[in-house]
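seq:
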Amino acid sequence: MIKAICQTITFLLLILPANAQDNLPELVRLVKPSAVAIETFGAKGEKLSRGSGFFIAADKIITNRHVIENANRVEIRLTSGKTFSSSGVVAIDGEGDLALLQVSIPSEQAVPSLSIERVAPQEGESIVVIGNPYGLEGSVSNGIVSAVRDIAGYGRIIQITAPISPGSSGSPVVNMRGEVIGIATLQASEGQSLNFAVPASRIANLKISSLQSFAALDADSRKNKRAAAERFYSQGLGVMSKDDYVRAISFFEKATQVDPDYAEAWYQAGFAYGMLGKHADALKSSRQAARIRPEWAEAEINIGASSFALGQFKDAETAYRLAAKMDASNAETQYALGLTLNKLSRPDEEILAFKRAVALKPDYAAAFEKLGSAYFRARRFSDALAAFEQFKILKGDAKAYNFVGETLFELGKFDESVDAFNTALGMNSDFVKAHYNLGRAYLKIDNQSAAIAQYEYLKNISAEWADKLYVLIYP
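struct:
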């Protein structure tokens, strides 16, 4: 019976047309029965909070962790009006603010579960939030995905324009195919609401354990410093997803005060300090994270970034090499190491780091640019040209063509360099260095009048570069 219902809703969702925005009422009709209202009660039977959730299996409901906080008993109410008690919790993701509840529903009243989309949504994608708070059951709001933010050391957070009303924490955020792309989260913090969505992919990563009663979970949480710290951590993530790093730091530091061994909170504090340019504070926090989790590559990357910003390049090199040893697949680490080795004037190792970066990530335009520049400084012009040609393919802007032109010039291919510089100027007519380069290339092919024309142009936009070209024209 339950399997048949799930198959039916899956089939119906699959056949929704591409312009499902025009069929929003039908989409809501199909998805709405899977959303539930949640009400929690204390040890003395007093009402504590209201929230929402949704079925991901016939006997399992996802909601926000904070919805069931301090609860002794939890009731689930279906859109049909039927109410059932949840027997407890089988999984918790404190940092993602998720809880997986167990509930037994008679087969004749079975509710279809929603399918989970593990791939991150596209920015601008249309979405619907179906909440089920008591007093306003089955509330629907729609909007778009306004941003998908990657937060280092955590993962992704989804920003949505659809409003989330109080009591709708834990609601499914679905795409136009009826697939869950996120879990709506509404947290009250310092008189403000943090409104965002936790990616649905975190549901798949939940680790199912033995059933735990709400009373037992509450008792453990009161004794467990980490549970309290995770609440501050989650709030910090919500604030940081909106680039409010100052407020985010206050939450992460509260988390570390509650639980000084919370490496992730130290890490995020370090990251936020770095974004604010407070690199000494960033370094201090990141080192705390690395002390607690010595095999964590991301913490070493933070240390490397802060050390680099402070001009402590040897320390930055050490940190980046440790990070690369822990995670050999990270192209960005090799890129950062290459930048550091440049500062330490070690060109051969710099080139090797950038080569490793592009080997790991063949479309890494910035790494090809730096690799080409390193080869150029080492006067390995053929290698530089190969790197810049790849940079040109990936980036295709005026700067890329200018780099190609400069390398062709050094290789004595002056006619080809003229073509490259002209292409660069066709993309950016005010590119001062390209005008200078074009002028000196014209001199090499004995076209002095064309070189003088570049000098005359430069006089109007850069006296310095005009003078540089003048001394070449009139030595």
